[in-house]
Amino acid sequence: MNLTGQNLTAGLRLLLILLVPGNLSASEAKGADPSDEFFRSRVPRMEIRLDARAVNSLRHDPRTYVLATVVEGGITYTNVSVKLKGARGSFRHFDDQPALTLNFSRAAKGQRFHGLQKLHLNNSVQDWTMMNEMIASDLFLAAGVPTARATHAVLQINDRRLGLYVLKEGYDRTFLKRHFSSPDGNLYDGGFLMDVDSPLEKDEGADPENRNDLAALTRAAWERDATIRLQRLETLLDVDRFLTFAAIEMMLCDWDGYVEKSNNYRLYFDPTDGRAVFIPHGKDQLFEWSGFPIVPGGGGLVARQLLAIPEMRERYLDRFGQVMEEHFTPGRLTNSVNRIVDRLRAELAADLPRQVDQIALQAGSVKQRVLARARDVREEFAHQPRPLKFDAEGRAELAHWESRTESGPATVQELGDPARLLIRSGNADKTVASWRSRGYLTAGRYLFTARVTTSNVRPWENNLGAGAGLRISGSAQTMSSRVSGSVKDHELQLHFRIDQPRNVELVAELRATTGEAVFDRDSMRLQRLP
Asked: Which CATH number fits domain 395-529: 2.40.10.270, 3.30.1490.20, 2.60.120.260, 2.30.42.10?
């Protein structure tokens, strides 16, 4: 049987609409997408038939399409365009375990495969679990970020049985119609390690040579004035969706995505509002690093320049927390893994028992890693410094202080009205204890001040200072205006400069062998200097 297009499906749908219109919802009346059920429940068995000429072409010119016949579910699709795919880490030659792109309508106009125009068969050589693409896809889609759906497939090429693959839908007009009100905008392929200021390949759009939208986004990202930069980016970028996109990449430990590495993404400019939407791609290497941060450290230009703006960093953290609580939950993550394994067992246990058993065995390890990541992101989020808020006169109150004892016995406690922070040495060879407040600061000059009252402080000195004083954690700068002995309401001042936006930990400290220091909490402030 040879089917081209969706003629049979469309005809049946039209007949149902004419016969029983009252039983159809509005979405059904428009025509249900046959790909929904395909990705939800099926593991297709696909046979690709290639003649000798096509095989020879794929061996010597793997990136050029050849024509093939595809058989699946008793249906034969002819004139299917096939080529090899894969980047530096995943590409395999035709006679190995090749990854493939299949385009059903390129040479047969209107032909669809379960509603799909284009799909990819990934060899998953960089994902031994064969689950990461599906876990990531479920998460992005649930949070409102357009991305390709994924499932498994069993592949045979001519007489070669290649076993289990990961099947992903392609990024084309069919995909764009699913996620946007208009598919007529420009769709760019991020390529391999190419940022938005690179000559990206244009996959969809009216004028192949017109990249004005991409150039405008690049100029906005490079704008030096943060206020103007934000105004321009909010005009040219779907900022809310980008923050969700960035948060999920960090949750997934995606070291090879756009946010951290300018890699593995698509970019669509929605013609209805002209704003860019980042689309995730290539999510096969996830949950690999323990201690992966939750805030991007600088990779993709748009992420780096957007999050360098303090208010956007705050919005990012707010969005991160929202996505974490609504979607990146232990139950949701483990249920996603369980659904994948259950579907494989139900569909393939009789045909591929060894491969299914291997994946089921790996599922325990996958669940351990995703649960560990869910725990880690919550812990880091709870302690993540927020951008300090300065008033019109450039002053910021330092409301949150945490104690730390580095050496020697010490009493470190908060005292009541008026609010004070006490550090008392335990009469040891040395006591190093402190009160610390963290925040995110932009580049500039600052003044950290606090009043301190000391009693019988005998200083212990090293390269960071001695006695009671102020300093910045991680800086080579020593304690400023430090005091020892007994003083009352002495004002400490620390001038410092930040060259690049970063997290800063302010330290009010006692380094002594005996004595105590009491810091007036209400006097502990940070001033941004002109």
From this structure: 2.60.120.260
